[in-house]
Design a protein that fits this description.
- GO terms for molecular function: ATP binding; ATP hydrolysis activity.
- The strands form 2 sheets. The chain has an 8-stranded mixed beta sheet with strand order 6-7-8-3-9-10-12-11, with helices on both faces.
- The protein contains 13 helices and 12 strands.
- It has a single domain, classed as Rossmann fold, CATH 3.40.50.
- The chain starts with 5 loop residues before the first helix and ends in a 12-residue tail after the last strand.
- The protein is 34% helix and 20% strand.
- It is of the alpha/beta class.
- The protein binds adenosine-5'-diphosphate, iron/sulfur cluster (SF4) and magnesium ion.
Length: 355
């Protein structure tokens, strides 16, 4: 299994801290269903005050249970949705989110590509692989001759390890396995030479036996093409192997983040601790982790709350074994735990006004 060298990357990041894509305090509220014409409008509070940054050549894992807002973040970053509030910056430049012109969005999406969970629905069954890959090549790259197109298409297929490439190029999606289709989806994203790849649970619908191959492909592309990779997963144990940084999300709020080793071996937020205790193969060999509360099954503490009317304050207070009266009143500030590790939890807050 390929394992990221976190020390090297963090040293490198200190030398080169320039983020390629940043989100600052973004919120996304979807309109909810109204009981009748005269009832008050309702909103799904899907993403609440989230800030994150992606760096060239670095993978960031975004983990959390289903319904925590991970896909909404990916769609916001890909500009499929407009944030209700907040700012996006690409290469340090604020993006004018009001510019929804097709040409502006197309140019942005050239740099920021999204890979979906379901490789079956992301390809059109009536078109060949050639058609799927040639489309973005024609839109974004200047191709002068058919021979040039052929050469580029074959190179893309080889890039995602679909060989012999000549045998895949004229196939239809239904002639490929799930893993091969996801490789085509990755090749299509690469066709436009992106700088950011947002992979939304890219292997969760694939056979277990091929998941590792696809993840290792994404990692090698990240390293070789210096891609900034957002790796979305509900499996926190895999984050440690595939991402230098891990961010933990609960019910629309980021609650913990930092170098993956620290977050996974010494989780501080009660939600991260419960997620790890519920993971099938958690990395809990570090003695520091043993000082944390005894693992309690997350499922036994109920489900993620409805985001139509989310709990006040720290949204985890309805399931948290350590909830205090203050937790219902407001969301805790971020506590810096050292070496880039942080959490939002009153248990670690040293500010007296937070207690
Ligand atoms: N287009 C939408 N309209 C209304 N609610 C949505 C929409 N997309 C997502 N949601 C809601 O936002 C919340 C977060 O969803 P999502 O981002 O898909 O979470 P995750 O990817 O972590 O499972 C959920 O409560 C979901 O029902
Ligand atoms: S802030 Fe309170 S409710 Fe939230 S995780 Fe920490 S102790 Fe639990
Ligand atoms: Mg999702």
């Amino acid at each position: 299994m390929q394992r990221v060298d976190q020390t090297a990357t963090f040293l490198n990041e200190r030398e080169q801290p320039e983020a390629i894509l940043e989100a600052s305090n973004i919120r996304k509220y979807f309109s909810g269903r109204q009981a009748n014409l005269f009832s008050k409008p309702t909103f799904v509070h899907a993403v609440e005050d989230v800030s994150l940054a992606l760096y060239p050549g670095k993978a960031t894992a975004l983990v959390g249970e289903s319904g925590s807002g991970k896909s909404t973040i990916a769609r916001l970053l890909a500009r499929m949705y407009d944030p209700t509030q907040g700012e996006l910056r690409f290469r340090g430049q604020a993006i004018n989110l009001k510019k929804r012109r097709a040409s502006v969005l197309r140019e942005y999406r050239r740099h920021v590509q999204l890979i979906f969970q379901d490789p079956f629905s992301s390809l059109n069954p009536v078109h060949t692989i050639r058609h799927h890959l040639a489309g973005p090549l024609h839109v974004y790259r200047r191709i002068r001759t058919r021979a040039e197109e052929e050469e580029m298409l074959l190179a893309l297929l080889r890039r995602v390890n679909l060989e012999p490439a000549e045998q895949f190029i004229d196939k239809y999606p239904h002639q490929l396995s799930g893993g091969q289709r996801q490789r085509i989806a990755i090749a299509r994203a690469l066709a436009v030479q992106p700088e950011v790849l947002l992979a939304d649970e890219p292997v969760s619908m694939l056979d277990v036996s091929i998941r590792l191959d696809i993840l290792n492909l994404l990692l090698s592309l990240k390293d070789e093409e210096r891609l900034a990779l957002l790796f979305i997963t509900h499996d926190i144990a895999s984050a440690r192997y595939f991402a230098e940084e891990t961010l933990v999300m609960y019910a629309g709020q980021l609650v913990e983040g930092g170098p993956s080793d620290a977050v996974i071996q010494q989780p501080k937020h009660p939600y991260t601790q419960l997620l790890i205790s519920a993971a099938p193969n958690p990395a809990r060999s570090n003695p520091d982790t043993e000082a944390t509360p005894a693992p309690v099954e997350l499922a036994a503490r109920g489900e993620i709350p409805s985001l139509l009317n989310p709990p006040s304050g720290c949204r985890f207070h309805t399931r948290c074994p350590h909830a205090m009266p203050i937790c219902k009143e407001r969301f805790p500030g971020r506590t810096d735990l050292g070496d880039g590790h942080w959490t939002n939890c009153f248990l670690y807050s040293d500010r007296t006004e937070d207690k």
